């Protein structure tokens, strides 16, 4: 181990460094690495917890083949991708819009109140969010259908029809996660030098040119951070789906996470569920690397 100036630490300092980091490393190994390796090993076995232990046997890659040829798994993968792209795109749009509005000098008193209001969803547990929105999506007594009826429109079966249920999930996800994007973009906008914006104004640039040609390039790293973070979070979405639609109607809103969960814990096929989880893990890594590659730039 080395100090900041490149010199090697002496023995007492090396020992002290290992002592300080060892609890965190031990915690990581015991609660993350070992369970992950154990799950990876199980993925090569026929392992059904509803059967006797003597039925457990090594079957090689059959679980992986079964998962990759499972229509439900493939359908949920397709919907998960659509859901993730839709939610993240709206997160970026609404998060940036709110950040721009709240960091300007337009109605400063209202801006302070709105900053507090918009951060409330961050303080609510996902299961509570799902419960609140489930009541709002109620076909008879729900607030949303009440508004539609008051405007002379028909009621919508939000959670019992395929397209409305999918739209409902995107709405809830965007509502719950946009505040975090907004806060990051607000911090990013504070880093843009006023001198550059003033110089652009003097050169005759309008607000659109200043935003896209001055501000956006300067906060590129923050945008990549929000994009990567939200992508990895949205693609793993489980709790809101489980509590709001439970994958319904039918299996139309099942995400990869909920499909794998039911595969392992509802149908007791732990081996196949573990294989699905590792396929899911590889997909997350590949997509994350792809995003970082596409949004990266030369030094």
Automatic annotation (TrEMBL):
<feature type="transmembrane region" description="Helical">
    <location>
        <begin position="164"/>
        <end position="189"/>
    </location>
</feature>
<dbReference type="Pfam" id="PF00528">
    <property type="entry name" value="BPD_transp_1"/>
</dbReference>
<dbReference type="GO" id="GO:0005886">
    <property type="term" value="C:plasma membrane"/>
</dbReference>
<keyword id="KW-1003">Cell membrane</keyword>
<dbReference type="GO" id="GO:0055085">
    <property type="term" value="P:transmembrane transport"/>
</dbReference>
<feature type="transmembrane region" description="Helical">
    <location>
        <begin position="15"/>
        <end position="38"/>
    </location>
</feature>
<feature type="domain" description="ABC transmembrane type-1">
    <location>
        <begin position="77"/>
        <end position="291"/>
    </location>
</feature>
<keyword id="KW-1133">Transmembrane helix</keyword>
<feature type="transmembrane region" description="Helical">
    <location>
        <begin position="79"/>
        <end position="102"/>
    </location>
</feature>
<comment type="similarity">
    <text>Belongs to the binding-protein-dependent transport system permease family.</text>
</comment>
<feature type="transmembrane region" description="Helical">
    <location>
        <begin position="273"/>
        <end position="292"/>
    </location>
</feature>
<keyword id="KW-0813">Transport</keyword>
<dbReference type="InterPro" id="IPR035906">
    <property type="entry name" value="MetI-like_sf"/>
</dbReference>
<feature type="transmembrane region" description="Helical">
    <location>
        <begin position="123"/>
        <end position="144"/>
    </location>
</feature>
<keyword id="KW-0472">Membrane</keyword>
<protein>
    <submittedName>
        <fullName>Carbohydrate ABC transporter membrane protein 1 (CUT1 family)</fullName>
    </submittedName>
</protein>
<dbReference type="InterPro" id="IPR051393">
    <property type="entry name" value="ABC_transporter_permease"/>
</dbReference>
<dbReference type="InterPro" id="IPR000515">
    <property type="entry name" value="MetI-like"/>
</dbReference>
<keyword id="KW-0812">Transmembrane</keyword>
